[in-house]
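Example: SCP domain-containing protein.
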Amino acid sequence: MSHRNDALSDFDRKWEEMAAQRQQFATHNGTTRTETQISIVNGVRKEIVTTYHPDGTITTTIDGRQSDGGKAQKIQAERRPERQSVVRIKSKAKTVEPSKTTKASTDSSDFKAEVLQLINDCRKQHQVSPLRLDDNLSNLAQDWANHLASSGSFAHRPNCKFGENIAMGSGSWGTVQSLVKSWYDEVNDYSFSKGSGPGTGHFTQLVWKNSQLLGVGRATAPNGSTYLVTNYDPAGNFIGQYQNNVFPKR
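Written out as structure tokens, the predicted fold is:
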């Protein structure tokens, strides 16, 4: 029991250190940030765009339609990530036993290196420096991938202070190559001259110049679907900063 408590305390300590750094960054900039999440199941795409405002409110659109009647929802200034044993859905918590058939990647080092290479190949094409793998960020990404796979949910980590891309697919659509490619393919809808584009948040986070560190997590759900989570520090997708961070191919 004491060993488990020590492990949880270590997790909390690492999260608080990283969250404090991101909170300082966000407070200093006082800007609005957008996040885009996408599920791809056998080629069928669903897109959710969340906008975090400086006053602590968030707005969400699902496939271009604003949720909750267009009303902004208040979010807490800071909250630790939910662990795999607790699922938060619409602010209501319920305990869920992690599925014994949910599997994290066993070839973690090779898998993370592959995702890093795929993303850095995209960044190189768009004239920005490569990302570096970070163990703490990868632990967070893996924790959230496990949570999504075991619960069957599909949502960003609540109040995440880091950039985050998530995707889910099955069969040939569930390979890391397909999932990362689905993020990058949003480039086709992005206007470099305007510094904007509908539903392009995954692409812009992939190639965001100021992002430096990458965390990677992958898990397989009981139904065989693969969940991929990547976290970025510093986060990207700040409104008003796109043209200084997202560049066309060289």
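The CA atoms of residues 57 and 74 lie 5 Å apart.
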